[in-house]
Amino acid sequence: MQEKSAASRMRTVTWQDPFTSANAVGEHSGLDFLRRIASGEIPDPPMAELLGFRLTQVERGFALFEIEPAEYHYNPIGVVHGGVAGTLLDSCMGCSVQSTLPAGMGYTTLEFKVNFVRPITMKTGLMRAEGRVVHAGTRVATAEGKLVDAAGKIYAHATTTCLILQVKAGGGS
After folding, report:
1. 41 SS3 class
2. Which end of the chain has fewer beta carbons closer than 10 Å to its terminal beta carbon, N or C?
3. How far apart are CA 119 and CA 124, in angstroms?
4. Which residues pair with 160 in a beta bridge?
5. Domain extent listing, the chain
6. What's the chain look like in SS3?
7. What architecture (CATH level 2) is domain 18-166?
8. Confidence category of residue 119, pLDDT binned at 50, 70, 90
9. What's the whole-model pTM score?
């Protein structure tokens, strides 16, 4: 039996009803919907609360998320888990696509590819996940994203393909 040499850590996560935003997605253009999330008028999704990231800027075809890497993001080898970077990149690219859509339309990720170029640790500091639309069609959109530190050094980059679809009341398709 192995003894723990360090004190246990604890993190409490709270979130608001996710159906508040799900119900609002069909009522606003994608850009207006995302701006309402960024301003706090519509609550952040539970996943953003869980991982500790936030939508901070959105324009048509562009979305920016920020995160401060923390110990609770670490994997067993002592660096931030790649899934955190993947989640941020999927979020910023998908939201860049959402920002181009009219009310009643949404998207789902069909696929995405991430390239990791350097490890992320707590010492990396504040990071930005920037997503930009490459192509916005009526059925399919593509976007690219990058995850950078405050100095602009790249840690990961990605591409995505999204399917554009009509959103039903209450979110979803």
Report:
1. coil
2. N
3. 9
4. 112, 143
5. 18-166
6. CCCCCCCCCCCCCCCCCHHHHHHHCCCCCHHHHHHHHHHCCCCCCHHHHHHCEEEEEEECCEEEEEECCCHHHECCCCCECHHHHHHHHHHHHHHHHHCCCCCCEEEEEEEEEEEECCCCCHHHCCEEEEEEEEEECCCEEEEEEEEEECCCCEEEEEEEEEEEEECCCCCCC
7. Roll (3.10)
8. very high
9. 0.92
